[in-house]
Amino acid sequence: SSGINAEWPLRPGEATYINQNFSQQCLKREAKTYKRPNPFANEEDDNEPSSVAYRYRKIPLLGPGAEPLTLICRCEVDAVTTSANGEEKYMNIKALNEWDLKGGASEWRQKLDTQRGDILTTEMKNNKCKLAKWTVSSILAGSDLLKFGYVTRSMPRSSGESIGHSILGTQEFIPKQFAAQISLDMNNAWGILRVIVDRCMQLKDGKYVLYKEPGKGILRIYKVPLNTFEEDNDDSDEEEEGK
Which burial class, exposed, middle or buried, applies to 38 when counting CB atoms under 10 A from its CB (0-12, 13-18, 19+)? Predict the structure, then answer.
C-alpha cells in the first residue's frame, strides 16, 4: 500500500530513526569526553557512532528471606546539561512521534501549545509500556532529567523512506516524579525483576527465551537449542562476504 499507512512509515524503523536523530540534534558541538572510549565503536567502520555515554551501575537485589544478589547494569545517558548554579546534570532524551494523522492532518500542530497535557495523557494511555521503559532506563542510569520531544511528519501524506519530520516542542521531567505521574511503582518493578531472576536461577544451564503474552500480564520462559538465533547471524555474515 502507499500513503501514510504504507509499510515503511508504520514499521518500527521510523520511530527508531526519529529517536536517534532527535537525541543527536539536541546536543551541542562541544562534546563532553570521558577517559574510556565508546565500547561499541568499530575502527573498521568509517561511520562515527552516535554520541552517548554509558554508565555501569551496581545494584543490590534484595528480597525477604532470599539470597542477596547483585545486578550489574549498563545504562545510557544521552546528554549532560548544566543547571543555573553550575551543577552538571545527566539527561536522557526521547522522542514521541505523532503517527495517527487523522484525515491527513497533524493534530499536534494545532493543539500542542494549548493542550500539551492532553496530548501527553493520550501518549500515556496508548504507549504506557514505552514511556515506562524510558523512565526506568533514566532512573537506572541515575539521570536527573528526562526530555521528551514532540515530533510529527513535515508532510503528513508523504510516503517512502524520504519522509521528513518536524520538531514541534520539547518538555522536561524529573524521572522519579514522572514515574509517579504514570503510576510506575519502582518497588513493584524491582519485585517483578527479583521473581524473574529467582525463577531463572532454578533452571538448568542452557539458552532460554523470555516471552510476554501480548496484551496480557503473563511471562513465559521457553528453553531453546543452544544454536538458536546463531544461524541468522551466520547467514548475515555470509551475505556480507558475498557482496
Answer: middle
Q: Contact 4/104 with Cβ under 8 angstroms?
A: yes
SS (H, E, C) 134-165: HHHHHHHHCCCEEEEEEEEECCCCCCCCCCCE
Q: What whole-number distance in Å separates Cα of residue 39 and Cα of residue 50?
A: 12
Strands (E), 51-164: 53-61, 69-77, 79-82, 88-97, 145-153
* pLDDT exceeds 90 at position 48: no
Crossing angle of helices 128-141/116-126, nearest 10°? Answer: 100
- Tell me the residue type at 109: R
Residues contacting 70, CB < 8 A, separation 6+: 58, 59, 60, 61
Residue with cell 547483585: 70
Predicted local distance difference test score (pLDDT) of residue 2: 46
End-to-end CA gap in the chain: 30
Report the candidate in 18, 214, 2 with the shortest Cα–Cα distance to residue 99.
Answer: 18
One-letter amino acid at 22 equals F
Report whether pLDDT(28) > 90.
Answer: no
Higher pLDDT: 37 or 123? It is 123
